[in-house]
Amino acid sequence: MATADGPSTLPAVPGLEPAFHIGPHPLRPLRAGMPVLALAPLAGVGNWVFRLICARLGARLVGVEFINCRIVHQAGIRVQRLLDFSDADVYRRTGISLLAAQIYGNDIGLMAEGARELERRGAQIVDINFGCSVPQIVRKGSCAAFLRDLPRFYEAVAATVEAVRVPVMVKTRIGWDDDSINVVEIVERAQAAGARAIAIHARTVMQKYDGEARWEWLKSACEAAEVPVFGNGDVRCYDDALAMVERTGCDAVMIGRAAMANPWIFSARRGANLAERIELAADQVRWMAQYKGEHVGVKETRKHLTLYFRDLDRHSPERLRLLTTESLGELLDFLESWRRALDGDPERDLALSASEANRLAWSGTG
Ligand SMILES: Cc1cc2nc3c(=O)[nH]c(=O)nc-3n(C[C@H](O)[C@H](O)[C@H](O)COP(=O)(O)O)c2cc1C
């Protein structure tokens, strides 16, 4: 279980007016003038530890990595870990964020039943994945396959809405390919079926992660939508998030890969100084050890550390210690002594470059 708000101070939710609601939930920007920012669902990354880290920094909605409706009732450790929504208690207590757990599948009845299980586990919002473009998944009629059959899409959303009391949102792409972009119809069907919000990765399914996200289609979708739209795709720094709102009129911005490299993006920052990164690394590795055990927890945190500290020289002793230390105690001691020894500590720019973003794309997911 997460005791994970830990010693660090949680940002207070200021008395700002909500920018919009998802069902009963008000969503407020972190500060006046900021857009509402959300963490995209990220398979293999978006566990409770990373979600909580992003929520503490200002993500007002955090996505859980997608879960197949056929395994949601299994008792194995892998599934139980996916379904560990301990962070939702923190959000309920503090109001800093909302947990949106994501279901996918090819059987509408099982998807609706799976959604009920996510709700029972504490999801505050149920999200349905209609965006994943991985061929093995789409071939089976799941995720983005629904975008080629909108009556079936409608039925899946309606059945899920019927099955749960929490609000349902959908995450989609703009259409199947360049000849069949149907995002406006997708939005209309989703909201008619009872979806209370829509996240749109502004690429076609066939595009996977190629080329640029097509924000112009996001704009058309936002014009048609009566429910809040989360714009998604190619936001690599906070300024991009502002530009997306400006150019598309989206209600909120959902951020995936850039958050992996710079979770401070949720605080409207381009990066962080070394002391802040060290402190975050210590929280993350400690909680990961709590979540997955010391051995796996320490190892799995390394992919994040590589990104947070990517300005270090490849052969620097600090980088070596960060990426090779296996014992939690030793790693925490090292982080503490490193932080104490800092002398002059400017903020580093951690914004993702386009090529870094490409490398993080995960065989066309989402
Ligand atoms: C490692 C990784 C895992 C992802 N897993 C999911 C997922 O489980 N569900 C989903 O809807 N999208 C998933 N996506 C897609 C992202 O949520 C997002 O739509 C996509 O990365 C585009 O946003 P970005 O440019 O901000 O990264 C994943 C993307 C990546 C890179």
Q: What does this 3D model show about the protein?
A:
- The chain has 15 helices and 13 strands.
- The protein has helices at 48-57, 77-82, 87-94, 108-120, 135-139, 150-163, 183-192, 215-224, 238-248, 257-261, 274-292, 294-308, 317-324, 328-340, 354-360, and strands spanning 20-22, 25-27, 36-39, 61-63, 67-68, 99-104, 125-130, 168-175, 197-204, 229-232, 252-255, 271-272, 348-349.
- Strand 6 (99-104), helix 4 (108-120) and strand 7 (125-130) form a beta-alpha-beta unit.
- Helix 7 (183-192) packs parallel to helix 8 and helix 11 packs antiparallel against helix 14.
- It has 2 domains: 32-270, Aldolase class I (TIM Barrel, Alpha-Beta Barrel); 272-343.
- By secondary structure, the protein is α/β, with parallel strands linked by helices.
- The strands form 3 sheets. The chain has an 8-stranded parallel β-barrel, surrounded by 7 helices. A two-stranded antiparallel sheet has the order 1-2.
- Flavin mononucleotide binds next to helix 10.
Domain count: the total is 2
What is the general shape? globular
**Which fold name fills CATH's third level, the topology of the largest domain?**
TIM Barrel
Mean pLDDT: 94
- Placed side by side, the strands forming the largest sheet appear as 3-4-6-7-8-9-10-11
Distance between the termini: 28 Å
Biggest pleated-sheet summary: 8 strands, parallel, barrel
- Quote the beta fraction: 15-25%
How many DSSP E strands? 13
Structural class estimated from helices and strands: alpha/beta
In terms of per-residue confidence, which ranges show pLDDT below 50 for 5 or more consecutive residues? Answer: 1-9
Radius of gyration: 20 Å
The helix-strand sequence is EEEHEEHHEHEHHEHEHEHEHEHHHHEH
Count of separate DSSP helical elements = 15
The percent of residues in helical segments reads 40-55%
The CATH superfamily title of the largest domain: Aldolase class I
Instruction: Identify the CATH architecture of the largest domain.
Output: Alpha-Beta Barrel
